Amino acid sequence: MARKHTRMVIAYDFDGTLAPGNMQEYDFVPALKMQPAEFWAEAQKVAQEQQADAILAYMQVMLKKATAAEIPVRKEGFLEFGAKIRFFPGVEDWFERMNEYARQKHVRLEHYIISSGLREMVEGTRIAKHFTRIYASGFMYDHNGVANWPALAVNYTTKTQYLFRINKGSLDVYDNTLINKYVPDEARPVPFANMIFIGDGETDIPCMRLVKDHGGHSIAVYDPDNKQRNPTLKEKARQLIEDGRATLATKADYRPDSPIDHAVRAMIDKVAANALIHDCAD
Q1: Average pLDDT of adjacent 10-residue blocks, the chain of 282 residues
Q2: How many structural domains compose the chain?
Q3: DSSP letters along 11-75, please?
Q4: Of 68, 160, 197, 223, which has the fewest Cβ atoms less than 10 A away?
């Protein structure tokens, strides 16, 4: 009898995890005639003065500054900004490689984004087609297609909500019926033990800890080319292992035979082996 495929999920942060830097800094912030440090300082100032969520503050500053600079803030424009984002080595063919390896192990692998960056920019990237869902901060649009209000703000604490949505199969962000309903662990579509979370920093710690504490794996990555600007990145990633928050700390290099490539294949093997043991027990 043919074996059925078991489901497995890899959830990713975006900025600093799949792509260097912050997505807003590639083209959007320069279009405002601002330096990245200046933009983020103003967003932080707004957050402090208004006692506002930092994500909502940066989204408000984006709209305010774009309007002042007469830059259209339409979804199509954000998609165009996203199309120019570059990625760490190996990212663009990573998903198909991992999917194929998982298929050979009778595992159906799904990929999700959980990011504080902009949903519309991620949707414009060359890799957007590989994600089952993109959970990221996003805007509402008026009848002219112009962004006028935040639709969703994803910060470091609310990120864990989307792991629970995946775990329970409640994928639509507007629907709170299933996410708040008691569902026995054995009835949940994707156990946390079948999840991997990949992130790059302190804002990812709640997700890393949630997945790892429930039997899954968390990977902390760092930009190997950013050591001169921020030499503590590698040490911070390794500290997450010492603190029990991550399974692995490694450079953001997704090419074949890289450390993360070997590690994720081993994690897929583990899920496949557990599923086979379970099938034998039946």
Answers
A1: 76 96 90 92 95 94 89 88 95 98 97 96 97 96 90 91 94 86 87 96 88 95 71 74 86 96 97 85 57
A2: 1
A3: EE--BTTTBSS-GGGTTHHHHTT--HHHHHHHHHHHHHHHT--HHHHHHHHHHHHHHHTT---BH
A4: 68
